[in-house]
Amino acid sequence: MSITGIKGMNDILPGEVETWQQLENQARAIFSPFGFHEIRLPVLEKTELFCRSIGETTDIVEKEMYTFDDKGGTSMTLRPEGTAPVMRAFIEHKLYAKDPVSKLYYIGPMFRHERPQKGRYRQFHQIGAEVIGIDDPKIDAQVLAMLSHFFETAKIPDVELQINSLGCPQCRPGYRESLITFLDQRIDSLCQDCKRRYTTNPLRVLDCKAAGCKEATGEAPAMLDNLCEGCEAHFAKVKDYLDDLSVSYRVNNRMVRGLDYYTKTTFEMVTGSLGAQNAVAAGGRYDGLIKEIGGPELPGIGFAIGLERLVLMLGEETAAAERPELFIATLGEKATQAGFTLLTKLQRHGIHAEMEYTGKSLKAQLRRADKLQAKRVLILGEDELERGVGQLRYMDESRQQEADLKGLDDRLISEIHGA
Ligand code: ATP
Ligand code: MG
Predict the structure, then answer these.
(1) Which residues line ligand 1 (CB under 6 A)?
(2) 92 C-alpha to ligand 2 centroid (Å)
(3) Which fold is adopted by the domain 326-414?
(4) What separation in Å is there between the alpha carbon of 257 and the centre of ligand 2?
(5) Closest C-alpha among 178, 130, 172 to residue 256
(6) What is the secondary structure of 209-269 as a DSSP string?
(7) What whole-number distance in Å separates Cα of residue 189 and Cα of residue 195?
(8) CATH 3.40.50.800 domain range(s) in the chain
(9) pLDDT for 106-161, tens place per residue?
(10) What tens digit of pLDDT does each residue of 216-241 get?
(11) Considering the chain, what percentage of its residues have pLDDT values greater than 90?
């Protein structure tokens, strides 16, 4: 029996991978002028890191992590998200000592043991960005402007930026208490999960998809109406700056995030086209996180974009495979040898050239050139080789010319590079 891959973990094949590369390149090109640098980190971290940062009572830590003991008995976890590892590395390498502001981005796989379905996988990929060291609301607006710009550039249809504020350690505990009091009176309408968790993590009830919970929390107090002065002023400024920068958004006062470390500004890029998997990017401010995991008291803000969902939204409009500039068809040993040398020279010059490696008939070789949609075909026969010429066909123009083989390599290189 043949061996298959793991459920919920996808192979990304040629034909699809071009879309991925395009999105990754766009992200790099967009983030760099905003001052971001890439950071690459291991996929495994000590389990403790995620428990302390994401929070013990979140879905991710309670039920979605791939956790195991390694041979030495240390509990390890395949990273379910990128922010905590970036902060771990930031602290470990004392990046703050070199520069009080760090702007970092990452691209890579994340792992969560969820039920696989459209837009939800067990290995998925995120492009994320983090700014550490600035609490000014200008940076919140700038991060959102950059995120929106990425979505526009990538031509992702039908997305809406939703923003909210989740307050800070000064105002959230009071709000939490009033939410618990509110939920206490409606406990019978809540689902089993929410009955259990409404005292440990009441904000999650607001995010519950169960109909009963949705109805019961319809009139629930909102964090936005209970912000302290500082958080309220901060959020007002974020909105002002977004308006100045012409970034469109909608305030959604019921948005809560599934990770405990968020404070103040939180946001999601939401789409109507992926059913229940409607968040294509999400993030927020995490001013207490770095201190919580043993670093200095520095604020941070960031987001993560889910790549699989973007690729789904871009649909079949995948980039066409690149056409070879030249296909070399040969007849006879000598011609094949000469063709092979020319092929390699062109490839070393960055030109996409192809030929058949095993002795096929000329007809079969031309069929292959056709299939690859080569722009030019060079036919080299034994007799022609003797005369020092070949037949060069320009496929799009249906024209053919006899080409002098001497210096043909250089002429092709300048013709193709000059095009
Ligand atoms: P959801 O509410 O859909 O579970 P989330 O709040 O758990 O999302 P985040 O932790 O904020 O998601 O991750 C940011 C982005 O990563 C999401 O907006 C989504 O695009 C993507 N993402 C999260 N989990 C998965 C998954 N299991 N498969 C594919 N993409 C995912
Ligand atoms: Mg989730």
Answers:
(1) 81, 112, 114, 119-121, 124, 126, 258, 277, 279-282, 304, 306, 308-309
(2) 28
(3) Rossmann fold (3.40.50)
(4) 9
(5) 172
(6) --HHHHHHTTT---GGGG--HHHHHHHHHHHHHHHHTT---EE-TT---SSTT-EEEEEEE
(7) 9
(8) 326-414
(9) 999 999 999 999 999 999 999 999 999 999 999 999 999 999 999 999 999 889 99
(10) 999 999 999 999 999 999 999 999 99
(11) 86
Q: What is the pTM for the complete model shown?
A: 0.90
Alpha carbon distance 114, 121 (integer Å): 7
Q: Which two tokens mark 175?
A: 């709000």
Helix then strand count (H, E) for the chain reads 17, 16
Residue with the two structure tokens 């096929």: 360
CB 195 within 8 A of CB 152: no
Say how many Å lie between the CA of residue 221 and the centre of ligand 2.
24
**For residues 377 and 47, what is the distance between their CA atoms, to the nearest angstrom?**
57
CA angle 12, 112, 26 (to 5 degrees): 45
Query: According to CATH, where is 3.30.930.10 located in the chain?
Result: 17-171+227-314
- Least Cα distance to 19 among 280, 321, 311 occurs for 311
Distance separating alpha carbons of residues 391 and 377, to the nearest angstrom: 8
**Which residues lie below 8 Å from residue 337, measured CB to CB, with a gap of 6+?**
none
Q: Assign domain 17-171+227-314 to its CATH superfamily.
A: Bira Bifunctional Protein; Domain 2 (3.30.930.10)
CA of 306 to the centre of ligand 1 (A): 6
Task: Give the gyration radius of the chain's Cα atoms.
Answer: 28
pLDDT level of residue 318 (50, 70, 90 thresholds): low
Measured by CA distance, the residue closest to atom 28 of ligand 1 is 120
Residue with CA at minimum distance from ligand 1 atom 21: 306
pLDDT of 53-108, one tens digit each? 999 888 899 999 999 999 999 999 999 999 999 999 999 999 999 999 999 999 99
